[in-house]
Amino acid sequence: MSHLPVKAPDKAQIRFNEFNLPVSTEFDDIYFNNENGLAESRYVFLQHNDLPERWQTHSHSAFRIAESGFGTGLNFLASWALFAEQAPSTMRLHFVSFEKYPLAPADMARALQHFPELAAYAQLLINALPSPHAGCHRLQFDDGRVTLDLWYGDIHDQLPQWLPHATNTIDAWFLDGFAPDKNPQMWQPELYRAMAQSCREHGSFATFTAAGAVRRGLQEAGFAVKKVKGFGRKRDMLRGELSTEQTQPAPHSLGSNRDSAAAPVTIIGGGIAAACLAWSLCRRGFSVELLTTGLANGASGNAQGAVYPLLHAELSPLSEFFLGAFDHARQFYQQHSSLWHETGVVQLAFNAMRQQRHDKIIASGLYHDSLVRELDGPATQTLWNALPAQPALFYPRAGWVPPENLVQQLFAACGERLRVTPCAPITTMKSEREGWQLSATDGAYYHARTLIVAAGAGSNNLLAPWQLTFQNVRGQVTQVQATDVSSGCNLVVCYKGYFTPPANGLHCVGATYAREHAGLEFDAQQQQPTHTADTAENLATLQDNLQQPWTTQLIPVNDRAALRHTTRDHLPACGWLTDNLGVFAGLGSRGFTSAPLGAEILVGQLLNEPLPLGASLLARLAPQRLQDVAT
């Protein structure tokens, strides 16, 4: 399967007509009806997919809608508003939409101002919009009850990446987009066949057009098509349902009856990976048992953690993964607003090699300037006047979180669905008739039907029978007292290390990266010892890279060391080794960027949901890739 580039899709070229409504200059077509776009959306797409009546009798825990042409987001907002008002409180909405030419947030806001009844929903959507890079961007609203997957790029490029994990999952299609005579490239048999393949039993569609070629294409794909009265002055439109004999077989399930979320899931861990998994599972109705030696007592226990993407000058799977992961993490943490600090992150070009790398990233043209932009020396100092006049990359939407507090808050948000079981380190896992028998160092035994290992550096021993190769890398962070100058730091500063804004009068300076610890055993109950040499190294790196007087005046007051759990390709291990054994490990030093999306992937695989990454990239995350076949 071909691997898609991550280059930003073309921006929508629009003008606003005499009614102050958006018109595409690319297709010379309107985004919605001049008279009443919301009424048209409700009539064509909601009414003719039999919503909300179907929500009252739906046999699944989630209702899933797919759409061709996100446009202004009007159809999504209308669906969300109706769902919030009339769907059963236990049901979730999963909305998937494809868009070749994303609207700029300001243009979307201007277009949607015509619908004041949707204003609250529209503002949440606009605040959450990702940088316009090709591929999937998962957004979540209403505390996880509503999920939006935005697939940017040509729909015919994106469908082959989406469809392998979306077969037999969709309940209703909104066949939208610019009219067939204006945009014939979209209205092709490949789209209709993908619609049919993605639909589960009783899957429906509705579309504003009644074009003969569209009707015949849908019929050939297996839909029973009806022509009905169109909206307003429009004479006809099409609606229909997939013929029962055309319904695709449900994909192999990783567990029995997963849609009911009846069986509990056991997680081994206590850091950000385990917290995001527990949150995603509980939001889908699962009960979760957490076997833990302590919450946030490993690499997730530092005082501050930066959240920003990892970019390369070439089209690498690593960069593509972190694009999606960063956008999702940023929006996910917005839901926990008291703990998300969108300060921006600056990466200094402190030497010629780093400058060359930055130049290549910008010259590649792969990344939209809302994600990253290049600064010259004077511009860098406008961010904070105590920075050196060095060129830099600036990530305006990045920031930091307090890891321990965040982990605690995510677990607390799981409520009564989560049972926390303190235990000694789990050392062995033995397959048994109905799951797994787990043994701990103190001789205690535990049982799990479905098990996920998310134990960070403690995962090595547990996964040894599968011959997965990980590394444990020791890192030490130093906290320093804020001074009159350093207290003005208002963003995360990255160089060979990093320096954070003050929190409770302290900055974090980090972090060492000791690979010689890669083979060490890890006991999560024992705090890693700190070393004065590492403290000196953290401060010396800051002073050497920034060359600023204030850096020599910082006084260390605390140190913390932990083991990072890494993989040889720096991508996390995220997937299922067996039908009832999942792995979420190897998050390295960017766990707070990758954990929210990785958890959604793992839980989505368990439930056979449409997934938030393309199929080729998902294959790169599979834990089986790390098996040491030589042993």
From TrEMBL:
Domain FAD dependent oxidoreductase: 265-603
GO cellular component terms attached to this protein's record: cytoplasm
Named cofactor requirement(s): FAD
Source superkingdom: Bacteria
Keyword tRNA-binding: no
The EC number(s) this enzyme carries: 2.1.1.61, 1.5.-.-
Molecular function in Gene Ontology: flavin adenine dinucleotide binding; oxidoreductase activity, acting on the CH-NH group of donors; tRNA (5-methylaminomethyl-2-thiouridylate)(34)-methyltransferase activity
Region FAD-dependent cmnm(5)s(2)U34 oxidoreductase: start-end pairs: 268-631
MnmC-like methyltransferase domain sequence ranges: 116-241
GO BP annotation list: methylation; tRNA wobble base modification
InterPro entries: FAD-dep_OxRdtase, FAD/NAD-bd_sf, MnmC-like_methylTransf, SAM-dependent_MTases_sf, tRNA_MAMT_biosynth_bifunc_MnmC, tRNA_MNMC2, tRNA_S-uridine_synth_MnmC_C
Main localisation: cytoplasm
Similarity section: In the C-terminal section; belongs to the DAO family. In the N-terminal section; belongs to the methyltransferase superfamily. tRNA (mnm(5)s(2)U34)-methyltransferase family.
Protein name per its UniProtKB record: tRNA 5-methylaminomethyl-2-thiouridine biosynthesis bifunctional protein MnmC
Species of provenance: Pseudidiomarina donghaiensis
